[in-house]
Structures are given as C-alpha cells and as structure tokens.
Amino acid sequence: MIWDWDWTLEILPGLLTQGLLVTLQATLGGAVLAFVLGLFVALLRRSRRPYISRPVGAISEFIRGTPLLVQLFVLYYVMPDFGVRMTALTTGIIGLGVHYASYTSEVYRAGIDGVPKGQWEAAIALNLPRRWTWIGVILPQAVRRSLPALGNYLVAIFKESPQLSVITVVDVIGLARELGSERFRYLEPMTVAGLFFLLIAIPASILIRRMERRLDT
Amino acid sequence: MITINPCSAELPGVLGETMPFLCDGTLITLQSAIGGSVLAIALPVGLMATSRHRGVRAVARVYMEFFRGTSVLVQLFWLFYAMPLLTGFQLDKIFAGVLALGLNLGAYGSEVVRGAVRAVPRGQREAAVALNFSPFQRMRYVVLPQAFVEMVPPMNNLLIELLKATSLLSAITVADLAYEGRLLVNSGSDQLIVFALLLAIYFLLSYLITLLMRFVERRAARMVGRERPRRRAARAAEAAR
Description:
The complex is a heterodimer of chains A (217) and B (241).
Chain A: H1 5-45, H2 50-65, H3 68-78, H4 88-113, H5 117-125, H6 130-160, H7 172-183, H8 187-216
Helix pairs in contact in A: 1-4, 1-6, 1-7, 1-8, 2-4, 3-4, 4-6, 6-8, 7-8
Chain B: H1 13-40, H2 43-48, H3 54-69, H4 72-87, H5 93-119, H6 122-130, H7 135-165, H8 177-186, H9 191-223, H10 229-240
C-alpha cells in the first residue's frame, strides 16, 4: 500500500483545525468585503455623473481582466513600498475582496436591472426622495434577487482562497505544502486538503441551487 | 520606417531590461491557455449531460461536480505533487498545468453547453423530428447551430477565466508570464513597473479574447439568420442614408 494511513491520521487534526480555520477566515473576510464593496461599485457605476461612473467601470473591468494571483503579488510586494504593512492573511483577504467585488458588482447590477419598472414609477408617484427610493424600495428587492448568485461567489471565493498560499498564507493548501515538503511526500496532505474542498464546496453549491429554485418561484 | 519591437532588449531603461523576459513568459502563457482551451472544448461532456440515458448523464454530472468542486490550483498541486506517488509517473509540468486547466474549465464549459442546448426551443426539435431528421442530423443541423450562438458570450467569460488561471502554473514553476515577472522582481527590477506591465499584458490578452469572441458571435448569429438588434439598426440607418 502506497498510502500511509499513520501519517494521514497524524496530519489530519492540524489540517482540520489550523488550516481550515485560516481558509474559512480568508473566505468569510474576502466574501464580506466583496459583497459590500461590490454593492458600492454597482451603485457608483450607475451614477449619473460620468466622471464617477466611467472610471469606476474601467477599474472594475481591469480588475476582472487580470489574474487574482498577480493582484495578490502587487498587494503583497508593492504596498509595503508605500508604507502599508499588513499580514499576509489581511493582504489576501483584501485581494480576494477587491477581485471578487468586480464580479459581485455585476450580480447586483443584474439584480437592480431586474426590479420591475413599475416599482420606480410607484416611487416617483409617491414623491419618495431618490435616496429612499434606493434604500426602501429598489435595494431590498435587488439584493434578494442577487442572493443565489452571491452564494455562488461565496463558494467561488472559498475555492480560490488557496491562491493565498502563494503569498505565504498558511491555509489548508499552504499547510499541506509545508507538511509535504517536510518529508518530500505530498500525496497524503494534498489529497486530504483537496477532499476538504470537495466535501465543503459540493454540498454548498447543491444548497445554493436549491435556494435558487425556491427564490425563482 | 521605424519598427518598434516590444520584445527587444534595446528599449530604453527598465522596459529593455524586462520586456524580453516578459515576452517569453507571454508565449508560455498563451501556449498553456490555448492548450487548456483545446482540452476544454467541452462539447461531448456538455451534450452527455443532456442525454436521455441516465447512466450517461450521471457520468457527465460526476465529472462536472468533481472538477467544479475544487479550484485549478488544488487540482494542479494534486496532479503535479500527489499523483506521481500514487501512479508512479511524473507529468511534465506544462502538461500537468494544461491538463488541470482543461479539465477544470472544461467542467464549467460543459455546464454552459448543457444550458445552451436545453435553451433551444422544444418546437425546433419537434420540427426536426417531423421532417424525419435522424438524431445526429437533428443535433448537427438544428440544435447545435442555435445553441452555439447562446454559448459564445459565456464561453468568452470562461476563456478569460482560463487565461487568468494560467497564472497559477507559475506556482509549479512553469515559466509563464507571472513567473517571469516574479523572477524579474526577485532579481532587482523595479517591482512597480514589472507588475504594472504584467497587469497590462494580461488585460490586453483578455481584451483580445473578447474582441475575437465578439467576432465569432456575430458570425454564428448570422449563420442561423439572427443578427444582433443593435447591428441591424445601425445598418438600417446606413441604408436609409
């Protein structure tokens, strides 16, 4: 048998607690940032002032067209030159959040576009101020519509979080690489780490699909 | 006439110092992106997911769920570091990378194909049956051309995702664009300029993909007798003039 069960059991607790904890921190931090930032980006892109909507749109397109990995490099290596010092994990969370904000902003945009026109007209008929039209009428409906797609991006952020291991964050994959390099044997840690991702991501995406169907009806 | 070669070492300053290496990296990036997308041509698996036979559908579903359940990076590490111990043979690193990219993005592509094929109106199939088309003819001449038009925009996004994912190959020391960039930074080039160039090249490449796919979409739409409304309006306005 090539598979070393003893070693697997030895490394399993570490991967389950320490590694998974960092992965979850990165995922949740990145997701919260992406969801909040994405909403602001979506709103700014709808601004009637072109000197706001155009640059925000261009920056968001640019972020979507370039790899997360390179953006992480920039945050990790270049930001300290400007006097911004952060831990690798914080850098990673910001990277994930900013990168996925460019995706979630599109989700919100579709959600806002999906709010029936009558809602806008009713708000005008009631002489609701523009701010309250957004806060009280449009956004609650738009965000509700966006929830399933945002859930998909939560899973996507979870799956992409291993990229942080490249900037020395010790998440599940980072830890698996470390453990593997100690014995120069990657089979067990990598397989276990990969299985973690499968075991969490597949049920999560099934759950989201179910939610999607419920919100549809 | 002066021709400027963006890859030459004679460019002034940091550009001349870095561009030759970045160009090498771009070539590797393009190679792996093309290799990955050829592998990811997901047509068969996507069609399998619309099959009438339960078993065929199940195979397609397992493949799609499995490869969409983990990221390219995890699959890459597994293929490159873990699999050799299990099976006893080591893949070449570029091949491992292209394989991981192709299988992963192929799973997403299958979903796109499945969705587009299912979105073709029922009446189209029924009409093909009424005209006594064989199942193959039905697929080839009726369903696929229409589904293809629907597939192109999401495929565009997937190709851009694929291009961006090639940067992960640098983690297993494939000398792609991201890897060359890091190497340059480590050997003391101005990191701000190097990373700016990296981002610019990646963005340029993904913009090129979008341009190419827009062209493909227009052709595909024209071939099934559909044209994008905006275009038609523009042409009508031209004709009126």
